[in-house]
Amino acid sequence: MDSLPNRSLTVAITGLAASDNPGPGVAVARCLREARGPRQTLVGLSFDHRFTGLYATGLFDEAFLIPAPAYGDRSFVQALADIRRQTAIDVLVPALDPDVGLCAATRRSLAALGIHTLVPDAAAIRRRAKSVLTPLAETVGFSAPRTVTLLSQTAMTAALRDFTLPFFLKGSFADARLVSTAEQAHAEFERLVGQWGFPLLAQERVLGDELNLTVLFNRKSELVGAVPMRKLGVTDRGKGWAGVTVRLPDVVERAGALLRSIDWVGPAEVEMIRDPASNRFYLIEINPRFPAWTYLTAAAGQNLPWAAVQLAMGREVRPFREVRPGQLFVRSVEDAFIPFDQVEALTSSRHLVLRGR
Amino acid sequence: MDPRFLFKEDCGDVFTLNLTGALVHRLYREGAVPEDIAQRLARSHGISPGQALGDVLAFLAQVRIHGLLAES
Amino acid sequence: MSAKATWVGITGITAADEPSAGLAAAQSLKRGPGAAGLRVLALADSAFSDGIQAVPAADEVVVVPSPQREPEAFVAAVRELARGRRFVLLPGSPGDMVALAPRRDALSQAGVRHMLPSPRQVSSLPFLGVARVAGLRIPRGTGLDPASVGRLALRPQSWPLVLRTTDGRLASAATPAEIPALAQALARPWGMVTRAHEPVLGSEISVAVLCGGHGRPLGMAAAIPLQRGGNGALWSAVTTADPGVLAATRRILDVARWTGPGELHLIRDEAGALWFTGVTPGFPSWISLAAAAGRPLVRQYVGLCLGAASLLPGAYRDGLFMSRVAMDIAMPITTLGQLATEGAFSHDTRHAGTLRAAPDHAARARVAH
Fold first, then answer.
1. What is the pTM for the complete model shown?
2. ipTM of the modeled complex
């Protein structure tokens, strides 16, 4: 429990890619900047100095380069221990799927460094995996698209017989491609296996309105906040560039019950498709972290990143009751300018002070 | 001015109405019957009452399909 | 609205996953010197796509016919907007520049101030001749039209092959099988892949230029593109004051006799030689970096259109890095509603109602979804 509930905190955030497929980190940071209360110190953590979100004007006070998640738990903890010699981090908000797993696996080590997190345990993360969503969805009356796990080329060939084109090929952690021909399916299969390994997933395509929920659970797996959003604009790569908040109390309740049943803690994004003809809701995916459109939650009256930081520190947060429907987000860009020698300094010293720039 | 943009909070659908549609929508929600609405349109636009009534009924059918009669 | 304000109409303001030159131009005008006397008017061709994307960047947004699909109707709409105002037009995408170049006389007669290149410059620039006279090499390759892209895979040649568009976006094909998908990813309604050439190992260099008549350079700024998205859009760049680049640029502009804004594409190879790979009409999408580095070329364009004397170039900041950051802007859905129903939106409620699309005379009720 935080003994100084009103003090300013130092919050580290990952997921700072901010180009055509942005991560959630910039949105999380902006929500924290706009929250009431004392100004937080925000620290950007990235494994790639090219992630443009690191340099957003007026957003981060410091930036550190850390090893990529693939380097594993020990490298992750060691990097944070090294950072602690310069900057004491109070809360770490992991904004990429692998980072959530790292935090779950190393929570005791992080606690020893004085770093608080709000993440589910490894078992809960596994229980919302794509390959096991169908039975989970049905427990609360959601539908789920037909999904088959692929463990071999033979399975891929069988999927081409069993699924109607187009259908989705997905990596088990990330990446999804809509394949429209057999040739494309084989090419994407090779690429996904090469990048993510087995298993892959073949999933039928469901047509309808894309509806996503950002939710936040406290350490007792109680729902603290939920903001539903209907996508209005999608890029060629399927990324949302515009969306509007909607009022869907029944869907929120069912999604909440689903995640409570797997003892969820922390933020999540529930991706769904609503078939307008039948009004059925198909559960597509549950991401174990804030989504890229998280900034909209603050505009809708529920600053969920702020709430997550309070909960991570053991502070109490009363559940949000209302969501403002009809709040629209549009993805724009802001250009930030910095002397290039400072970028070069980040790559050599792995640390950059941005405050006051 | 009659509202010409409608947003359904429960699903995020958005609709635009032209000036005439917005007028018909408002009058119907205020309790006017289609025949009276059609008479008003016929007078203001110089068209036959029969044509106006056909337009009004076709429009109201669309509005019902989209569930817009409860919108403000 | 002050009678002395200058309206700058900018087309093609898009963000999402392809931030345009129009967007960067609007942002650099609103944040640069003299912003108080300018009103940035986004000219969108749809409320639901570029219209709503332009809301954060402009003072007002008006929905007008597309310059590329309905150029005559666009000219008519802009004539109405320019009536009684000091109005400068800046096409914010290469496609819009190409579409409006043949209408530059009509725009001038409509009271719209601009610096558009000639139709010949945007459609049939003698690429090889310009390079030869300017003393620059060009990568060995072939010009393409949409029909020949497909046949490219069948021709014997060395790999990888660089596919390049008119506006400088590029992709590298390692095998013939990759060509169709890459060409499709690079394609735009106004232009396809225009050249396939051997790769040149080195650094791409982009030069933003503003020319008076007959290739007289009035402003230049060079940068090295760094990070590009999958569709070729630029996400980071760093300025360079390479004197060899600037000298080569002057030679090219002189030979090409360029007018107005443009982007030159060069490569400095590992041996230090410069190669020329094309010219794109219009400012590049990193034009905001030029302003931050001391070359406010968009502001200069506006001033020149109004008859101001050409500015003496100030010091250009070498080594300034631009990081383009995707950011969501929140607004009520009624903003979209206003754009969709009234064809216009203004951040300044005092002036809401001063700019409107054509009135709706439809007698039939209609629901548009």
1. 0.92
2. 0.93
